[in-house]
Write a structure and sequence with these properties.
Blueprint lengths: L1 H21 L5 H5 L17 H15 L6
Helix pairs in contact: 1-3
Amino acid sequence: MMTIERESLIQFVNLVNECCAVMEDSYVAEWLNRPHPDLNREKPIDIFNGEGTERIYRLLYFIEKDEADL
């Protein structure tokens, strides 16, 4: 069980680091907890799992390219 928790924590830290690369550090927690229109009004933190994580990373990519809004 400890390995699963550690891997989840590492994945979450990686996600936070990616968020910090495309937005102000002070905004990351708010962004993760706010429903986003490009995620079907779901909060990024709520869909942080397998398929949802890919959707979040894809959105961050488009935010970085200025093709999506924060």
